[in-house]
UniProtKB/TrEMBL annotation:
Lineage: Bacteria, Pseudomonadati, Pseudomonadota, Betaproteobacteria, Burkholderiales
Protein name: Dihydrolipoyl dehydrogenase
Catalysed transformations (reactions): N(6)-[(R)-dihydrolipoyl]-L-lysyl-[protein] + NAD(+) = N(6)-[(R)-lipoyl]-L-lysyl-[protein] + NADH + H(+)
GO MF annotation terms: dihydrolipoyl dehydrogenase (NADH) activity; flavin adenine dinucleotide binding
Cofactor note: Binds 1 FAD per subunit.
BP-aspect Gene Ontology terms: 2-oxoglutarate metabolic process
Signal peptide: none
Ranges for domain Lipoyl-binding: 3-77
Native organism: Tepidimonas fonticaldi
Length: 623
């Protein structure tokens, strides 16, 4: 072992920046790239990562100290040969405001996203100057009323700010409430009940064949959306948040021009409103990627078109084997469609461990005629018989199919290039993302961005938390509250859920990632075939898996790093594992937490007991 000084790396033009947070203390074990301190200039705050792994011996800085490149942060005890090996890393949020919004957690607790960070373009745009007058002025303008936008707006209003939301559609709620999370789950619930009922004959209760009234089902979905979006409108009113209906685009660094829209869509009336703001939060979200070679035909839809439930096709193709495609496929197949799925990668539901996905595959193989992996869709023609689609395997194999409905679910693209961000001086990447720091601040200090537009994972719960951070930082700055102004997105993990049947949920480090990164983990796996509740429900195909840090320095009491669940209601349970990771729980903490019996949730406690070696609901561990 050797002692070495960890220094502040190159942080651009910034000199003498104040230390506002100490993130480690003597005795802590740190990993390469783990954040050590937070520093703040008048433009941005950033976390300074460790260039080496080791144990903190002594902190050489205290709160309020001023540091620059080369200042010693702490002395670290490192393994001999490591001392010279790793070059210093860049800080997690350079002052150009350009990096990803990815959480700055200890690297072993990897966020759910595997996406590359958002990297700012090399040349930053120069803001336009706007000399016109404003029709409305506010403290905070939120551009986009999705889950990120309305959450940011409501939090800012609750903290005492004058807030306006600009939204092009008639209702608030964005993709999630109108054409995403909520309508898909309304339909998936119906599908799950239908599937459950069809298994009941095995348990001694028979129902007749279900008769589907598609108009009524569509009506149910619309009612669910209406109830939630109506609730948002009421809550905006209660908070005195002004909702400006229309398409917003920047005309300067402190002004957005809104072209009024009408009806249920984006038809423009020609009327314009200019809103002046002190601070802005860009929450303009994303839209489905469209494959350019697919013909324009009503039988080819994206997720929004599929959720409209136009008809139930006999034969459906899903292009893209990710969560959105498989969720929609579940709905349509339960309603009667036969499915083909085509995916370029070597497996469906990428991101989740294969053992979880295998359980889903076994339960769902009856829905599919063909699962085409490592295969590209290369062409399609609209014919009277259906949409004729050509495929090409990575090994050169060619094939073709004909379909009544084709769902393109090949990802989503951010809306960054559609809001004239350059007029405000905000940098947008070639792909349309906007880079932010951990406080959700863009390269323009008074403009923030949140949600899908700042990067992966594109999930509503990430957008909401980012929205709260941006609102708090702004309120802190405008109202002079230093604690609020220090708010930052520091979540260690973001859970992912496929609401298929069974559900597949995972959070933090996966087993595949642990293997790839060489992180030794102790696995606690509790099979639901030993869960009283799962057996009673007639659904014992799943399992719960927890992964604990098993590096030598954890001395057999390692903290939980990740977990996954496959089974009914997995999505409702994964939050407990996320909490355990955030709290740094170990197997004893989780195993000794008394879970109610008989529940599916107790499988989490039992998986921890398996890792700890104290589980009495399974055969004894081998000695
Ligand atoms: C089918 C489907 C299912 C999904 N299921 C889940 C799920 O189960 N769980 C989950 O976490 N996530 C899910 N998602 C993803 C989730 O919907 C998004 O991550 C989330 O909505 C992103 O929120 P946001 O606020 O960033 O943006 P959005 O929800 O995209 O909202 C952006 C808003 O900005 C408005 N806007 C854009 N540009 C302008 C402009 N120039 N002027 C005015 N208004 C503008 C848009 O009209 C929109 O209302 C799903 C997505 C889809 C498509």
């Amino acid at each position: 072992m050797a002692l070495m000084d960890i220094q502040v790396p190159d942080i651009g033009d910034f000199k003498d920046v104040a230390v506002i947070e100490l993130l480690v203390k003597p005795g802590d074990t740190v990993q390469v790239d783990q954040s050590l301190i937070t520093v703040e200039s008048d433009k941005a705050s950033m976390e300074i990562p460790s260039s080496h792994a080791g144990v903190v011996k002594e902190l050489k800085v205290k709160l309020g100290d001023k540091v620059s490149e080369g200042s010693v942060i702490l002395s670290l005890e490192v393994a001999g040969e490591a001392a010279a090996a790793v070059p210093p890393s860049a800080p997690s949020a350079p002052a150009t405001g350009a990096p990803a919004s990815a959480p700055t957690a200890a690297p072993v607790v990897a966020p759910a996203s595997s996406a590359a960070p958002v990297v700012a373009p090399a040349v930053l745009p120069a803001a336009a100057s706007f000399s016109g007058s404003a029709d409305l002025a506010c403290d905070v303008l939120v551009l986009g009323g999705g889950p990120g936008g309305y959450s940011a707006a409501f939090r800012a209003a609750d903290l005492g700010l004058k807030v306006a939301i600009v939204e092009r559609y008639a209702t608030l709620g964005g993709v999630c409430l109108n054409v995403g999370c909520i309508p898909s789950k309304a339909l998936l619930h119906v599908a799950a009940v239908m599937d459950e009922v069809s298994h009941m004959a095995d348990l001694g209760v028979e129902f007749g064949r279900p008769l589907v009234n598609i108009d009524k089902l569509r009506g149910h979905k619309e009612k669910v959306i209406g109830k939630l979006t109506g609730g948002l409108a009421a809550m905006a009113k209660m908070r005195k948040v002004t909702v400006v209906r229309g398409y917003g685009a920047f005309v300067g660094p402190n002004h957005v021009e809104v072209e009024e829209t009408t009806g249920t869509g984006q038809d423009k009336t020609g009327s314009k409103t200019v809103v002046a703001f002190k601070r802005c939060i860009i929450a303009a979200g994303s839209q489905a990627v469209r494959l350019p070679f697919l013909p324009d035909d009503p039988r080819i839809v994206d997720s929004t078109g599929a959720l409209a439930l136009p008809t139930v096709p006999k034969k459906m193709l899903i292009i893209g084997g990710g969560i959105i495609g498989l969720e929609m496929g579940t709905v349509y197949s339960t309603l009667g469609a036969r499915l083909d799925v085509v995916e370029m990668m070597d497996g469906l539901m990428q991101g989740a461990d294969r053992d979880l996905v295998k359980v889903w595959e076994k339960m769902n193989k009856g829905r599919f005629d063909n699962i085409l992996l490592k295969t590209k869709t290369v062409g399609a023609q609209a014919t009277p018989e259906g949409i004729r689609v050509q495929f090409e395997g990575l090994d050169g194999t060619k094939s073709e199919g004909i379909y009544d409905l084709v769902l393109q679910a090949v990802g989503r693209t951010p809306n960054g290039k559609k809001i004239a961000a350059d007029k405000a001086g905000v940098a947008v990447t070639d792909r349309g993302f906007i880079g932010v720091d951990v406080q959700m601040r863009t390269n323009v200090p008074h403009i923030f961005a949140i949600g899908d537009i700042v990067g992966q994972p594109m999930l509503a719960h990430k957008a909401v938390h980012e929205g709260h951070v941006a609102a708090e930082v702004i309120a802190g700055e405008l109202l002079g509250d230093a604690a609020l102004a220090r708010s930052a997105f520091d979540a260690r993990v973001i859970p992912s859920v496929a609401y298929t049947d069974p559900e597949v949920a995972w959070v933090g480090l996966t087993e595949d990632q642990a293997k790839a990164q060489g992180i030794p983990v102790k696995k606690g796996l509790f099979p639901w075939s030993a869960s009283g509740r799962a057996i009673a429900n007639g659904r014992d195909e799943g399992f719960t898996k927890l992964l604990f840090d098993d590096r030598p320095e954890a001395h057999g009491h390692g903290k939980i790093l990740g977990g996954g669940i496959v089974g009914t209601h997995a999505g409702d349970m994964i939050g407990e594992i996320a909490l355990a990771i955030e709290m740094g729980a170990d197997a004893v903490d989780i195993g000794k937490t008394i879970h109610p019996h008989p529940t599916l949730g107790e499988s989490i406690g039992m998986a921890a007991e398996v890792a700890h070696g104290s589980c009495t609901d399974l055969p004894p561990p081998r000695r």
